[in-house]
User: Fold this.
Amino acid sequence: MKPNHNENDTMTSAILVTGGAGYAGSHTVAALLERPDTDVDIVVVDNLSNAYRPEGQKKPEPLRIIEEMTEKTIHFYDIDIRDAAGLCRIFENHNIDCVIHFAALKAVAESVEKPLEYYQANITGTCTLFEVMRKYGVHKLVYSSSCTVYGEPERLPLDEGHPTGAGLTSPYGRSKYFCEEIMKDLCRSDPKWMVISLRYFNPVGAHPSGKIGEDPNGIPNNLMPYISQVAVGRLKELVVFGADYPTVDGTGVRDYIHVVDLAEGHVKAVKLFKQKGFSGFHAVNLGTGTGYSVLQLLSAFEKASGRKIPHRVAGRRAGDIAANVADPALAQRLLGWRAARGLADMCADTWRWQRTHPNGYRGE
Ligand code: UDP
Assistant:
């Protein structure tokens, strides 16, 4: 692929999005391209481990749809981030200015069964990416982190000053924590690094067009896709994992954040790199500051879909915590970002996507 050239015959600057064909990645690519002021190329690298590309098609389905929606081109490479030579080719072909790094394995329970696969993908992959970035003099990075790094909360809401790394219950969570520590060390080693580690709470929802959304492999582990698959008739009933927590109704409480808000948080983070004097490692929560229980989410989804969702209560899921809520004040102060979409939007947008794509991107 030939690099793009602008009028002055310099290479157009580009943002590299790893894992850009996945759920959070594709919504962020859409958010970047939907902005009228985006004058950068978007380059996606994804190994398609959790994204669908129809046979004979060059680009994964969500990227093809985003190109159609925005009438803009996305450069796509089917490469694993552990492939250093493959990554180098991308940095040779494009004038990469910054990297948004989503590519990772993310199924918490699976990570307990397959720790080496998780550490390989999430840590080796991340270190390989950083080595290539350093080689090409690219030091701006937005990292896809998780509120999991906080472990069992000592206090709520969780602010970024809360300790991280203690009491983590899965290799997935530890891989996110280890990567944050690696990025802190990088920033200590060289002041040129600018790292914003976005600690996501619980991303849910879909693009309001209903054209892109979450398409989990197999039976979903997370609550919102599980509920929406019950609503659409793919799954029989929701199993509520525990109704004896010290919460409003006994079920687990989480800070759900609309994936489009999450995507916009990344756009704001990229903008921050332009701020004079910005450098070093910054961890920032992306959450709403409001928690909802399993039953509250269920009832909001029933309202949005107009369907009754069968459910039964079972025992607690191993490793779960009672409640998790973000303090989103730093995101507002540092990024000028706050969540704009509420629970009703999250449910309505999830339902629009699910009802029009009962089998996700794969169609019938
Ligand atoms: N949950 C549930 N049934 C499910 C999936 C999740 O009751 O099939 C509950 C889970 O125990 C937690 C909440 O829903 O209280 C959110 O779970 P999810 O896996 O979506 O996010 P996480 O636990 O990683 O924050």
